[in-house]
């Protein structure tokens, strides 16, 4: 299993309307908005208090391999992440676990515009080139309909469902396309 750090950071990735890039200090207020938003955290265990976030969030948040800021017109509107799934958690497709897992979170004002789909598709294309042949997994609550819709649109298929954090989880996999020589 190749370490994500060995392919990080990539050059900024440009799509039709967005740029995916590593985080910067100027993104801090948007990170705090994301973590404090009750709407964003409806299916993610609830928001964190803003005053606590103001104290705890580092100067440059999300500065680690696999964390892309989604930038629209020069401002952060969310994140898309590709990180190794914790072997202790349920849901695996490889015997050695440690699968690459995609996650996404957008500020509510950026929903309903296809930004999440555009950003995730670009991140997955980057991943397929950077670490070819690896599957990507995705775990989201079954009742998070915007998220399961997006997962299916991105090409993920349901591998299993299980209970975690007191709710039913949809666990999907995106199998790499094998080039036919
Ligand atoms: C999950 C989440 C990213 C989905 O956001 P989203 O905006 O619904 O997702 P998409 O990018 O697929 O956009 C689809 C919507 O954009 C619309 N749209 C507009 N222009 C579009 C375009 N050019 N292309 C595609 N869709 C477009 C679609 O019609 C659809 O609209 P609708 O919601 O009114 O039906 C968002 O709800 C979120 O951040 N939730 C909180 C975090 C979370 O739960 N994450 C999951 C854990 S991994």
From TrEMBL:
Keyword Transmembrane helix (UniProt): no
InterPro entries associated with the record: Acyl_CoA_acyltransferase, GNAT_dom, N-acetyltransferase
All copies of domain N-acetyltransferase, residue ranges: 18-176
Gene Ontology molecular function terms on file: acyltransferase activity
UniProtKB keywords: Acyltransferase, Transferase
Enzyme Commission number: 2.3.-.-
Root EC class: transferase
PANTHER family: GNAT FAMILY, PUTATIVE (AFU_ORTHOLOGUE AFUA_3G00765)-RELATED-RELATED, N-ACETYLTRANSFERASE DOMAIN-CONTAINING PROTEIN
Protein's name in the database: GNAT family N-acetyltransferase
Record organism: Streptomyces argenteolus
């Amino acid at each position: 299993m190749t370490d994500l750090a060995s392919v990080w950071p990539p050059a900024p990735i440009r799509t039709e309307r967005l740029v995916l890039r590593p985080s910067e200090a100027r993104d801090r207020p948007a990170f705090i908005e994301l973590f404090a938003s009750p709407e964003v955290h409806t299916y993610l265990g609830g928001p964190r208090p803003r005053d606590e976030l103001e104290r705890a969030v580092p100067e440059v948040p999300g500065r680690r391999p696999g964390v892309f800021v989604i930038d629209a017109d020069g401002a952060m509107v969310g994140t898309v992440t590709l990180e190794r799934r914790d072997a202790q958690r349920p849901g695996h497709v490889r015997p050695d676990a440690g699968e690459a897992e995609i996650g996404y979170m957008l500020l509510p004002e950026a929903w309903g515009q296809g930004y999440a789909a555009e950003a995730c598709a670009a991140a997955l294309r980057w991943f397929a080139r950077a670490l070819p042949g690896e599957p990507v997994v995705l775990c989201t609550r079954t009742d998070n309909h915007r998220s399961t819709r997006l997962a299916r649109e991105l090409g993920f298929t349901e591998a299993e469902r299980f209970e975690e954090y007191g709710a039913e989880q949809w666990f999907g996999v995106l199998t790499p396309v094998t080039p036919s020589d």
